[in-house]
Specification:
The protein is α+β, with helices and mostly antiparallel strands and 256 residues long. It has a single domain (5-247), classed as Beta-clip-like (Beta Complex), CATH 2.170.270.10. The protein contains eight helices and twelve strands. The strands form four sheets. The chain has a four-stranded mixed sheet with strand order 5-6-4-9, with helices on one face. Strands 1-2-11 form a three-stranded antiparallel sheet. The chain has a three-stranded antiparallel sheet with strand order 3-10-8. It starts with a helix and ends in a 9-residue tail after the last strand.
Length: 256
Amino acid sequence: MALTYLEEEKYKKVSKSENSTFTEKEPLFLSQLQEIFLKLQQNKNGKLTPNQVMEKSYGFSVEIHQSTLPNAGLGVYVKSGTVPKYGIASMYPGTIYYPMEPIFFQSINNPYILKCVDGIMVDGNHQGISKKIFRSCSLRDHLGAYPSCDTSWLNAREKQPINPLAIGQIVNNAPIKNRANVVYQELDIPYTFPTNLRQYLPNVRFKPMDIEYLQYVDEKELESLPYIRVIVLVALRDIHAGEELFSSYFTEVECD
């Protein structure tokens, strides 16, 4: 859901204080993602389900169930094990819109638009025009033998996605009486991210990267050039089996 101006200002204040140290952990989160995707890739033709890979390799899995919140619909729970503090509990899937890119019609009656502080938006809607746009962009960006992204999250309510963490759009905001146990963390995936692992990214750009520009970029610049923005939901504490994930933009993050 998009933030109002006042909400953005409030979030910026939190970001400058408690959240500043948390941002320094971005290389850790990127490393976690790459490791998770590698394990999923190694099991691609194996006998384990994606959730079983998570349970075996990382000690936890998450799933979708009816939320404990009244009238909230579905929610996301830790199915088994424990999500460790600072572990990636889920990802927010969807089409990525950079500032000035058209999103008006997609945003009408759409509760799944997530707005980053810098104006980048993620459309995590699995239905209607949002679904068609995501599928179209994913086919446009197909990377030879490898899919450009994970489209299976579009049907996550009926079938487990290839990337089992790609259900973050279903995580509910924390009720007033409960403190959030996960926080949204913006993460820019570098262009050097392995091509064979991009198929597990549940995000795609609305507008493709400028291929002609990339021809003039040297290797050193590529290391810092962002390929795509993703949003991961990071555990603020150990979250155990049976607990529902609750998020909040305004959680004050305490770092070791």
